[in-house]
Amino acid sequence: MDLYGTGVVAQVDPTTRPTGLRDIECLWLNGLQKSAMSVFFSLAGYAREARARADALHLPLFIMDLTGTPQPVNDPADALIRMGPPDG
Fold first, then answer.
1. What superkingdom does the record give (predicted)?
2. Does residue 47 sit in helix, strand or coil?
3. Are strands 8-13 and 37-42 parallel, antiparallel or unpaired?
């Protein structure tokens, strides 16, 4: 599921398998096309390759618990929480 807002595009993966590399790269490209920050939310976490690629792309990753509460997974997600989205 893709979500769009002013200056941001997010994807939510509600499946029970870890989010893969292709999903991360597709979201990143979608964000580039829209000149927006990309953010990913996953219920089951991330495959090792997906996490490494997101870190290299500075793409914020969050994991959701069963109540739907997001928790940051990587440094870009921590920075997004601390500082908010960059000014467009």
1. Bacteria
2. coil
3. parallel
Rounded Cα distance between 42 and 34, Å, is 22
* DSSP helix, strand, coil percent of the chain (3-state; round to 5): 35, 30, 35
User: Could you write out the DSSP letters of every residue in 38-88?
Assistant: EEEEESS-B-HHHHHHHHHHT--EEEE-TT--EEE-SHHHHHHHHH-SPP-
Q: Report if pTM > 0.90.
A: yes
Find, among 78, 43, 34, the residue nearest to 59 by Cα. 78
The two tokens of residue 64 are 């959701």
Q: Encode pLDDT of 2-42 as tens digits.
A: 788 889 999 999 999 999 999 999 999 999 999 999 999 99
